[in-house]
Amino acid sequence: MDNKTDDILRRPLYVYDLPSEVLSTLEFKESPAEAPEALPLDPTPTPDTSNSLSNDNLTGAQSCSLCALAFTSVDDQRSHQKSDLHHYNLKQKLRGNKPVTETDFESLIGNLDESLSGSDSDESDEEDDKPESTLTALLKKQATLASRSANTKEASGRSGSAPMIWFSSPLLPPNNYFGLYRAILTPEQARNESEVVEVLKRKQLAPIPAPKPNPDGHAMSAAYKGPHIFMCMIGGGHFAAMVVSLPPRQTKHASTGPLNKEATVLAHKTFHRYTTRRKQGGSQSANDNAKGNAHSAGSSIRRYNEQALVEDVRQLLQEWKGLLDTSDLLFIRATGATNRRTLFGPYDGQVMRANDPRIRGFPFSTRRATQNELMRCFIELTRLKVREFDPNQVAKPQEETQTKNAASKPAKPVTPKLSEEEETALLHTNQLQAFVRRSKLPALLSYLKNNHVKADFIFQPADSQQNHHAPTPLHLSASQNTAPLVSGLLLKAGADPTLKNKEGKTPFELAGDRATRDAFRVARDELGEQKWDWGSAKVPPAMKRAEAEKREERERREIESKESERKKAEEARLKLEGPKVVERTSKTKGILGGGVQKTAQEKREDEARGLTPEQKMRLDRERRARAAEERIKRMQGGS
Fold it and tell me: Which of helix, strand or coil describes residue 584?
């Protein structure tokens, strides 16, 4: 490729002002199987930061990571979680689809018919007079459209014309092609693709001096007769329109390319009205049709703004009527029946007709209606694309493509079907573990007896983390420090204390307090040395029940005595000194010399700091026991 050719391809190629070197070498790419239709139309798309779903910065309590929204209050967040937008995105996630933004959801809702209550339907259900919700109507419509699309494809065998027409040229490197949007051609021009090169040659326009538009953006002159196109977008309360001249600007340095300068805009205008329900999606009119008229101040404002937007748009179209009537093409994006009626009526003084053959849709994704977005779309439509295509990647029949797509999707994990024995084992596991955690000894013993389950039943699945540590009821009871359960399983159910978990520990070694360990020693005494290999079970020498009860009573009295002495000392101090209040500083946080008197919760946290989980549980039980005794004393004193 020589330097001249490289310079030609380096600059943007304007469809209506192509260099003769390019135009003379174009050749229609006939084989649709080799046309690179599936390649992206814009290799470097501009990110839409205003309308993208990104939850990188949406973390915290008052946000919704699914819908990528943040809220100023918890009430707003709760309201959003009840909204149609949130419920629709939940449905999307369950179906493996991406969630949609507020604007996208408004567009989807806007495309629904004005009556969402089903009153226009031929069928009625006398037993259900409640109008269906906006979300229900949307999901039904999408299912219907998907069914129709599948039937149409099955009947026709093809999904319609591709949005682009491709050309080969010796100026391009191997496997590279020029692309042209089919939308800028008339149906007659696009129908005979073999002559599209000649059509493109006839579309070339000579540069003209740039006309001067009015400063306010209104139509410069209704008498302007040069080639031009009209573009507009309306949706979600946003409206943007623009009339653009097609001939390139006349410049001193034509070689720099026409798109290096801004296009000649003959007229432009944007409107925005607050018409959509914040954080809920859908217009006010769609909500009124679904649920009846709301009576809030916001709903009244939105209804007024919807009507005001209609009047503003129709008045603008009337002012631009001369330019619209002489436009070569009309590119329009109107989401929803309400917005389409705004443009196409019927109404008195109607400017545009829905059946106008010049009307086109945008053959690519668009964003919020703004002047900048219209200019981006104009450049996208009128630039000749250059794409690379690998001829080895020839399009395959539909069946093979579907097979490939199915194979490329990650296979969902298949849950193996459980046998009857495995299901029964899982049921026993859930029941027994529930009884142990709730310290229900009679219920546990009754379940073992009635269901003929051994006391040494192994919890399932055995490889789970919890069952790895505590595989039997006795292991779990010991780890939970429930002495009555340990005693009942050993003495009444005949549990084996020598069984070890996957870590090689016996039930006794999992006991975290003295009362639970004493329960093993008492069982050793009452069952006898011959019953189990107590040494292998790591259980210390036997202990008489009376001795264990005495020791427990002694420890209880010692705890009560210490607590009583502490209370007496505190009462004496209070009589002499009064309540002790110290100032808090940012550094000491309530230690000596700083801080207000600690709360009960802070004191409990200080006492538990540094203790093991088992010690914390024991301390908590002692606190509850003291509190219960205090309540009993107060009740006895009151009587």
Answer: coil
